[in-house]
Design brief:
Blueprint: H1 2-29, E1 34-39, E2 42-47, H2 53-61, E3 65-69, E4 75-78, H3 80-85, H4 90-93, H5 107-119, E5 122-129, E6 135-147, E7 150-159, H6 161-215, E8 219-223, E9 229-232, H7 234-240, H8 244-247, H9 258-274, E10 278-285, E11 291-302, E12 308-317, H10 319-354, H11 363-394, E13 402-405, H12 406-420, E14 425-430, E15 435-438, H13 440-456, E16 463-471, E17 474-481, H14 488-491, H15 514-524, E18 528-534, E19 538-546
This protein binds adenosine-5'-diphosphate (ADP).
Adenosine-5'-diphosphate binds at residues 449, 453-454, 457, 481, 483-486, 494, 499-501, 510-516, 539.
């Protein structure tokens, strides 16, 4: 009987427990707003202030944790979000002390904020244990609320970890930004300093250039790749008496002597086209109307890519030198004439002595006469050269033209050379017969000059090769030696009047007239003369004449 009573009691208690459980769920989900509770004083009605359905849904759905605690710090209520944050099942969280969910180091802070919270609304950052040993930064906002059962403290817990992470990232980004900003500033400062330095250098070098150009005796100019002159030095304005307005661009043409303008312009445009140095002699009109000869030279300035930026030119006054040259030419003309007459008589008398038959000449005297004859011949050829030079200058180097057999002429010259220079070997390379229109004596003079030079400038290797061949309707006669040779620079000048290579080691006699005269003769034959050579390796001098 007693056992049956017991089991009925247990059954009743289980029933009550289930009922309590259901009631709690009903309260949580807002299915009930009031409860009728039976206690020792009979039935009592409890209305639930927090039971408002709308607010309950808000609280359940919000992303913050919500906790209500009593004076003892026991959790009376919490939402699902808090249970997730604390990594604890909801039913275990309710009824547990809140401090269970904060790490040991934060317990004091929690106590303080709770005590404070009972006094007034407050908020503070506190760490929350999430059960995995990782602590979570949270913001606790406390408010007291009045429940029917007495005062309770409601705490809204906001997870700050994402915010903290973002803050951290933001800080890192800020630091990176600050670093980049500092680097940029540094770079900017360096750049500014460099620009300042360069500008300073530029100003100095521009002033340097100006000072230099204004102080040299030459007139200078700079022109753009299209030929327009964009600056002159002070000397130009002083000399011409004109300003930049009238002489800039192509205004300088007005100041060139009309007779020199065509050649000047031709060479100017050719240089702009080819990028090669511009060089021409011409006359510029001075402010008083007098023309003076100038030597113009201009070179291009290129950038790293090899493109021309501008040209720098100089015009040097050569009027005085020109006059000196003219006087020299005049003197050479007169002197060679004056020398020619006594020389001719000297030669005549020598021939008379040689042919004197009345008594036999002693052998020594005969020998002297022979030597005197050689010297007189040398003298005569020198005087002839001098006469030729002055004739060329005066434009009077004239001679009759006829058909000339080049093969015969070459054979004749080689024979002469073999006679005069017996220690040398002259190798012939001739095939065929070539006829040109020309003057035999003058062409012989050219070839003999080349053979003489070949001997004179190859004292060690004594072989000279003479070749005759046809080339594009021309006959080309060349003389090759294995002597001292010529550098590129020297090659460009050897056909000038009186030019001789200054070589202390290989000093030979001569006046630098032979090649000048030869050049003139060949040009008058509508031919070309030139040289191929390498210093120390020997030279090949050649001339080409149009075949008949
Ligand atoms: P020169 O009377 O001085 O020989 P040329 O007009 O014949 O005058 O020659 C001019 C210059 O050219 C010479 O002084 C010499 O320096 C150089 N030259 C001429 N021919 C040769 C050659 N075959 N080898 C080397 N240099 C030469």
């Amino acid at each position: 009987m007693e056992q049956q009573n017991h089991s009925e009691e247990i059954q009743e208690l289980r029933f009550q427990l289930e009922e309590a459980q259901e009631t709690i769920n009903a309260i949580r989900t807002g299915q009930v707003d009031a409860l009728v509770v039976k206690d020792t004083d009979g039935h009592q009605l409890y209305t639930l202030k927090t039971a408002d359905q709308t607010y309950r849904v808000f609280i359940e759905k919000m992303s913050e944790g919500a906790v209500t605690i009593n004076r003892d710090g026991i959790i009376l209520y919490c939402n699902t979000r808090f249970a997730v944050m604390a990594n604890t099942p909801l039913e275990k969280a309710i009824g547990a002390p809140l401090e269970t969910f904060v790490p040991a180091g934060s317990k004091d802070s929690l106590e303080k904020i709770i005590n404070n919270g009972w006094e007034e609304d407050c908020r503070q950052e506190i760490l929350l244990k999430d059960g995995d040993g990782k602590d979570m930064h949270c913001l606790f906002s406390c408010n007291t609320i009045e429940l029917d059962t007495g005062a309770a403290l409601s705490i809204i817990i906001t997870d700050l970890s994402v915010l903290k992470d973002t803050e951290k990232q933001l800080q890192q980004r800020n630091e990176q930004l600050e670093e980049s900003r500092a680097n940029t500033e540094k770079l900017n400062n360096t750049l500014e300093a460099t620009v300042k330095e360069r500008t300073h250098d530029l100003v100095i070098s521009r002033e340097h250039f100006k000072l230099l150009t204004n102080n040299i005796v030459q007139m200078t100019w700079t022109n753009l790749p299209d030929g327009n002159v964009n600056s002159y030095n002070q000397r130009w304005y002083d000399y011409t008496g004109k300003d930049f307005e009238t002489t800039g661009g192509f205004g300088w043409k007005e100041l060139v002597h009309p007779e020199d303008l065509e050649e000047t312009a031709k060479k100017y445009y050719a240089s702009l086209e080819s990028g090669e140095m511009f060089e021409v002699e011409n006359r510029y009109r001075r402010h008083d109307g007098v023309y003076r000869w100038h030597l113009n030279r201009s070179r291009p300035l290129r950038n790293d890519a090899g493109e021309i930026i501008f040209w720098v030119g100089t015009a040097t006054d050569i009027e005085d030198q020109k006059r000196e040259m003219d006087r020299k030419d005049e003197f050479i003309g007169i002197a060679s004439h004056e020398l020619k007459t006594p020389l001719t008589s000297l030669k005549g008398y020598l021939q008379l002595i040689e042919g004197y038959k009345q008594e036999e000449l002693p052998p020594t005297v005969k020998q002297y006469i022979g030597k005197a004859g050689v010297s007189i011949n040398k003298l005569q050829s020198l005087i002839n050269d001098l006469l030729d030079v002055s004739k060329i200058k005066a434009g009077r180097l004239e001679y009759a033209l006829a058909d000339v057999n080049i093969t015969d002429l070459v054979n004749q010259c080689i024979e002469n050379a073999e006679h005069v220079f017996p220690s040398y070997q002259f190798e012939k390379q001739i095939a065929g017969n070539y006829i040109v229109k020309g003057n035999t004596e003058r062409l012989e003079q050219v070839l003999m000059n080349l053979l003489n030079n070949a001997v004179k400038y190859s004292q060690t290797n004594k072989t000279v090769i003479i070749a005759v061949q046809e080339r594009d309707n021309n006959v080309r006669i060349s003389v090759t030696d294995r002597g001292i040779g010529l550098s590129k620079d020297q090659q460009s000048r050897i056909f000038e009047r009186f030019y001789r290579v200054e070589d202390k080691k290989n000093m030979t006699s001569g006046l630098g007239m032979g090649l000048y005269i030869s050049h003139e003769i060949i040009s008058n034959h509508n031919g070309t003369i030139g040289v191929e050579s390498e210093a120390g390796q020997g030279s090949t001098f050649y001339f080409e004449l149009p075949l008949v």
